[in-house]
Write a structure and sequence with these properties.
The protein is mostly beta strands. It has a single domain, classed as Bacteriophage SPP1 head-tail adaptor protein (Thrombin, subunit H). Helices cover 13% and strands 46% of the residues. The strands form 2 sheets. The chain has a 6-stranded antiparallel barrel. The chain has a two-stranded antiparallel ribbon with strand order 3-4. The termini are far apart.
């Protein structure tokens, strides 16, 4: 019964989520090949997603107070992409290429690695759980 209602609401919810994505990200995947001249393995980066709108949430600005008056913040950043984005895999590299007015300007050119990509047929946005470049 509720399935048709969700199906009808998804396009509007997805458009709303995408309209709030004011950052831009590029996602690349490493490929390695043997370089005969240099006699070593060379890593190149192939684009998976180029200059997509995104929303970068590093968790630094928001914290959650707990009973002991300690502030807890997330260590790993999250990146939200339009639900139409497919093909992102763990260990892909995410580079923030532009930041919107609500994002910390120091995140410009930040690089992080995808730990987990959450996608599906009924999601409003693609959620990437990431980790910082070490």
């Amino acid at each position: 019964m509720i399935g048709p209602v969700i199906d009808a609401a998804l396009p509007v919810m997805r458009a709303n989520a995408e309209s709030m994505m004011l950052d831009r990200c590029t996602i690349e995947r490493a490929t390695s090949a043997w370089d005969e001249v240099a006699q070593k393995t060379v890593t190149t980066w192939a684009p998976v997603i180029t200059e997509s709108v995104c929303d970068v949430d590093d968790g630094a600005a928001s914290g959650r107070s707990i009973v002991t008056d300690e502030t807890v913040t997330r260590v790993e950043p999250s990146v939200y992409l339009p639900a139409s984005v497919v093909g992102v895999e763990p260990d892909d590299r995410v580079t923030v290429t532009a930041v919107g007015p609500m994002t910390d300007p120091s995140l410009l050119d930040a690089v992080m690695w995808v730990s987990h990509a959450v996608a599906g047929s009924h999601v409003v946005e693609c959620h990437l759980e990431c980790r910082w470049l070490q």
